[in-house]
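User:
Can I borrow your eye for a moment on a structure tokenisation matter? Would you put together a sequence-and-structure record for a protein of your own picking? Please set it down just below, with no commentary around it:
AI:
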Amino acid sequence: MNTTINIIKTGFLSQICFLFLHCTPKVAPKTSNNDADVMKSVEIETVVALANAFKSKLTEEQKAILQLAWTKADAAKWSNFPQAFSHPQRVGISFTQLTDAQIKAAKTLLKSVLEDVTFNEGFDETEGIRAADSLIGSLPGKSKTFGPGNYYIAFLGEPSTTALWELQFGGHHLAFSNTYKEGKLIGMTPSFRGVEPMAPIDLNGRHYQPMEQERLMFVSILEGLTESELNAAKLSATFADILLGPGKDNAFPSVKQGLKVGSLSKFKQNLVLKAIGLYVRDLKSSEVDKILARYTDELSDTYIAFSGNKTLDKVGDYFRIDGPGVWIEYNTQPSRDIPPTHPHSIWRDHKTDYGGQ
């Protein structure tokens, strides 16, 4: 495997280019209630059909590992750690247990629910995270623990256009969960993303840097604040990791901290909304615009906060968005295998983690 890492210096100009080229607000076309219902029906029917197409390619033994009953306990068994270090261990079947044809069918399913057009977003973001893990897996003594095969897919509940079920996918630095009920996507969180190394990776003809756009957006928010606004947003606490990682369900702080977004100019508020959109728009769903509309309605009562440096590239640097619904954290970690640092980030929702179940 020929893998190279290129370090790219990011300056103010590249930040501006990113903002205007990739973060322009997307306005959903107006549709009637009947049109929206038809779109949802087609969407869930497609997801279920592709889920069943993937399952049909498995042996009975593989199906028994993939398909489980829905329980909150299993839904909560996601982690940012590799499987060998996850306690409890995530459920589902790993890509190492699948054939190439079976993996292709699993990826077709994932592409149907993840945005699959933009580089380093949605499905491409998950591929970049797995590519980075393949680099770690190529290091001496790491191949059994790390690598693109050590990612797990699970169905919690039978894929259905009516019943409750969850599509779960994850591994090192990745946790994705879509919860469905009555033909609707009722939960997209918890959703964890991280990557090591943070530096760009060129692998198999592709260029990956899956978390850089999030960092740049948060930096742009902080760079645009006045001195008094920065002081209000600055937290006195230091952060060794995100607060609401695996095993930290419903651990939201009881008091919001930082700078109230409603006190900012419309331009600065829009930057915060664009940052939120980088997480929500990883998904491909008719529900995405509804979720962003809810977060937009709640924006004036949302808070931003940070700790450490505004560049968010030093160990301990931290950024948070905390609203009535949305919760996003970004934290810079020391790297264990490929120095110097790498990010951890989480998107949760105060109301709809695990579909509110």
Observations:
- The first strand starts at residue 3 and ends at 5.
- Confidence is low (pLDDT under 50) at residues 1-31.
